[in-house]
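2024-03-11 09:14:02 DEBUG pipeline.ingest accepted 1 chain
2024-03-11 09:14:02 DEBUG pipeline.ingest length=144
2024-03-11 09:14:03 DEBUG pipeline.predict start
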Amino acid sequence: MDILQNIVYPQSSTHIQLLEYLLFVTLLILLPYLSVMIGTTFFSVMHFSKGKRSGNRKHLIFSRELIDIFTVNKGLSFSLGIIPMLSIMLIMGQLLLHSDLNVNGQLFFALILLVIGLIYIYTFKYSFRLKNIFNLINKSDFTE
């Protein structure tokens, strides 16, 4: 992460205090969003598997409705998930400028995992739409 070391300049004590406030506000945005996203995805997958095992259609419908609550569009995930993580990377790069810790590398790895996780969540969401389309095709099935 030498690129981040080149953009980061030493700051005064007032700037460091401002960075700490910005870090707090950014974490205040990121952590509730991630908690709700992980929770709804967990319960949606749980009800989906329960509906598949028991054959109960109500669990499948509830699973689809749960995953649709917080995955309204991809812009929401970008603005509440990826942008705060990038700003945390820059803030931590400035706060820990002369330390030997590799926090930026670990945060970059966490950002990659976040993007992969969001891709999986949206793939799970859109799989419900594909199942509805395939069910419509199978029902018509050229029986006329």
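2024-03-11 09:14:41 DEBUG pipeline.report The radius of gyration is 21 Å.
2024-03-11 09:14:41 DEBUG pipeline.predict end
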